[in-house]
Amino acid sequence: MLPLIVLLLHVSAVCSDSHSLRYYYTVVSAPGSGLPEFSIVGYVDDREIVNYNSDSGRYLPKVQWMETMQDGYWETNTQRAKGNEAAMRHNVRIAMARFNQSRGLHILQVMHGCELRDDGGITGYDQYGYDGREFLALDRKLWTYVPTMAQAQITAQRWNRPDLQVGERQKNYLEIECIEFLKKHVLNGKEDLERRVRPQVKVSGQEKGDTVKLHCQVYGFHPRAVNVKWTKNDEVHSYETTHVLPNPDGTYQIRVSAEVTPKDGDRYSCYVDHRSLEEPLNIVWEPEKSSVWVIAVVVALVVVAGIGIGGFIFYKRRNPGYRTTGTSDASSDPNNPANA
């Protein structure tokens, strides 16, 4: 539910054997939205691992392998989450005042986390969003906060002051503590996080006058990161794509579409690259083998049927015993006065 709200705070899926640990904090200004007033959701890669919200009041595991963490971990993080809840409730009021808002439903979100690349490199991020727009972000080169709208300038100036240096403190967390926990979580969940399931691919075409809407459905794959695109004669063709969506069994699916005007000699393929594959897949769309063959069969059947019916009628008319049968129930009844 929450990642659908976090649009501008989205982090791209890692396409190699890198791993990431990130947390989303969300607070709403008023109850009645259908969301908890405050929540924290934690992810390793694209797997939800922990959850805290104002309804449960507890920091809880969301996958079995997180239950191996010691009891002190859950109690400590529950108390931290309660402190973050109080701070976020206060901060959303400050943000509303900056925008001259005194009522209504408003959402303040924070996303922070770290990534450990397969080459050993590390990085971190700390971003703030308000009502679906990016508000404030940490510059990872200077470790200072950069406002992305005028209302965030006061906060950025305050956090960047020499006596506070919030960015430097975040650097220590993101590059040390966050990475240490990420390594621990990846080790505990290695079997789940690093399992490989090959994608299934289905291509189809939908005619629309002179154009065809091509669809490439890729499904049943794990992990989430995948590269899917349409190519024309081995060159990338313009396409549109859905988000990668989860399946109930823990795998993922995605659909990529392209509108084309087929011409003789053109070759359209769906290109799929995924960690489970030794080589990328190229599934060629071939309309002739389906629609043209079906049309040919139907035409042939109609011709054969027509020849058969015509031959039967010709034969009967030349047969001396042939007598025309009435075409209605009344004319076929010998007792009907109309036949007198």
Structure description:
With 340 residues, the chain is α+β, with helices and mostly antiparallel strands. Helix content is 29%, strand content 32%. The protein contains 6 helices and 17 strands. The strands form 3 sheets. It has an 8-stranded antiparallel β-sheet. Strands 9, 10, 13, 14 and 15 form a 5-stranded antiparallel β-sheet that branches. A hairpin with a 5-residue loop joins strand 5 and strand 6. The radius of gyration is 32 Å and the shape is globular.
* Through-space gap between termini: 83 Å
**Outline, from the CA principal axes?**
globular
Helix amount: 25-40%
**Main pleated-sheet profile:** 8 strands, antiparallel
Radius of gyration: 32 Å
Q: How confident is the prediction overall: mean pLDDT?
A: 84
Please tag this protein with its features.
340 residues; alpha+beta; eight-stranded antiparallel β-sheet; 17 strands
